[in-house]
Write a structure and sequence with these properties.
InterPro entries: DUF4270 (IPR025366). Pfam families: DUF4270. This is DUF4270 domain-containing protein. There is one protein chain. With 444 residues, this protein is mainly beta. It is 14% helix and 40% strand. The protein is built from seven helices and 24 strands. The strands form three sheets. The chain has an eleven-stranded antiparallel beta sheet, sandwiched between helices. A hairpin with a 5-residue loop joins strand 1 and strand 2. The longest helix has 16 residues. The two termini are 22 Å apart.
Length: 444
């Protein structure tokens, strides 16, 4: 809001305020004693009845917290591979999913033969790491039923299911996420020939879905020993397919195929193992669930899929009432700046969300979003700005039991489907300082 708008607002308000001028003058002396601890610039209306005041000295406490589990199922994105990050450590990601029995198919007993079997995956355009070097992927057969725990709706980044010890498929090569339409992993011919025989002979284990899921519980895709990046793929029944090729010798030889498609997208999920050894987050182990920004170089760290999140608390909101009897909050903005040098090789999340959280860091509501503003000239003013007026206004009057902090996180989709991360400064960070700007009216 610029100065012209301030004056327009005050002129419209002046008539109503004059009627209460004697009482307001009486309060002025009291309210002037209730501004201790605040430095501000006044934008004063011409009638001298109202001050529009800006303060940027509200204390903010920020810390990095480690969340025990993060839901990753149902996002329709398969992530697999390994990413080494000097600030967040090593993230190893693998994906689990079920496949369905194919549609009914007639394969002649005589004159037909198995050829090969592959897993076809479609890159979704995302990669964390160097896309110019070969990537290493492996496929394992799942040996336990993929399902949610009782009374739970999601599978999480720490969920796990047993697999065979030997891979049944692999891929090694360069993945060009922006141009490659498919990535093909060659599967075990022994398994392929077995499935072909079952299809041809109409085995009960492959003709009914519930029976097939007992026989073939699912697939697990993970990075191989030489994996150096995390790649993203679309995980839907039309984009993630195990395809079996065979041929039939008729008048001419005809090549055909049968598709085993991914099913139950709500049960497809990504498991994430994070190792913070040698990073500022290394102390987040065992019972240590939070680190103050002071202990991590006046910085806080956010990467939801690995469980790292930023918690923000404004402890003295309730003290604002002592600013004066005729005090009213107009606008409150919070600006967060990414720490320079921390995103050279990693993209910044395009937008961030602020969520309300309780004392256990459980999200209770999403409040507002902040779009990334990029300073393309000097990069010093790259930031996210949030309007937290409603939050501050509400926190003035709620009980301690109902009081909430703020959790900084990328959008719900990005937080479950990418390794996007953000390092921001606190109020004492000299170059990338967190700022709270409180605009309020003080009636004299």
């Amino acid at each position: 809001m610029n100065n012209t708008m301030y004056h327009l607002f005050f002129r419209r308000s002046a008539g109503g305020i004059r009627r209460y001028l004697p009482a307001l003058l009486l309060v002025a002396a009291v309210s002037s004693c209730q501004k201790t601890g605040f430095t501000y610039n006044n934008v004063v209306d011409n009638n001298q009845n109202t001050d529009y005041i800006l303060t940027d000295t509200l204390t903010v406490n920020v810390k990095t917290v480690q969340q025990d589990s993060v839901p990753t199922s149902g996002a329709e994105v398969l992530l697999a591979g390994k990413r080494v990050d000097p600030l967040f450590g090593t993230a190893t990601i693998q994906s689990y999913f079920q496949i369905a029995q194919p549609a009914a198919v007639e394969i002649p007993v005589n004159g037909s033969a198995y050829d090969s079997m592959v897993l076809i995956m479609r890159p979704n355009g995302y990669i964390a790491g160097d896309s110019t070097i070969p990537q290493d992927l492996q496929v394992y057969r799942v040996t336990s039923t993929i399902q949610t725990a009782k009374n739970f709706y999601y599978l999480y980044n720490n969920s796990s299911f047993s697999t065979e010890s030997t891979p049944i498929g692999s891929f090694s090569g360069i993945i060009r996420p922006g141009t490659d339409k498919t990535v093909t992993l060659h599967m075990s011919d022994q398994l392929g020939a077995q499935l072909f025989g079952m299809l041809r002979d109409k085995s009960p284990d492959i003709t009914a879905n519930n029976t097939f899921l007992e026989f073939f519980k699912g697939l697990n895709v993970r990075g191989g020993p030489n994996s150096k990046a995390v790649s993203g793929f679309s995980a839907t029944d039309s984009s993630l397919v195990m395809r079996l090729y065979y041929h039939v010798n008729e008048i001419i030889t005809t090549v055909k195929y049968v598709d085993f498609k991914m099913q139950a997208s709500n049960l497809q999920f990504n498991q994430v193992v994070a190792d913070h050894t040698g990073t500022p987050l290394a102390p987040l182990t065992g019972n240590v669930k939070e680190l103050s920004s002071a202990s991590t170089g006046n910085r806080v760290f956010t990467q939801p899929i690995t469980g790292s999140a930023t918690r923000i608390d404004i402890p003295y909101i309730k003290n604002l009432v002592y600013m004066g009897q005729f005090f009213k909050i107009m606008k409150v903005y919070m600006t967060l700046k990414p720490v320079l040098g921390t995103y050279t090789d990693s993209r910044l999340p395009p937008r961030m969300a602020l969520c309300e959280v309780n004392k256990l860091n459980d999200v209770t509501d999403t409040l507002t979003y902040g779009q990334l503003t990029v300073d393309k000239l000097y990069d010093k003013n790259t930031n996210y700005t949030f309007d937290i007026t409603s939050y501050v206004t509400k926190e003035q009057t709620v009980s301690d039991v109902n009081s909430r902090g703020l959790l900084l996180t990328p959008s719900a989709t990005d937080s479950r489907t990418t390794l996007d991360r953000l390092v921001t400064g606190d109020q004492k960070n000299t170059q990338n300082q967190l700022k709270i700007q409180l605009y309020y009216l003080l009636y004299k």
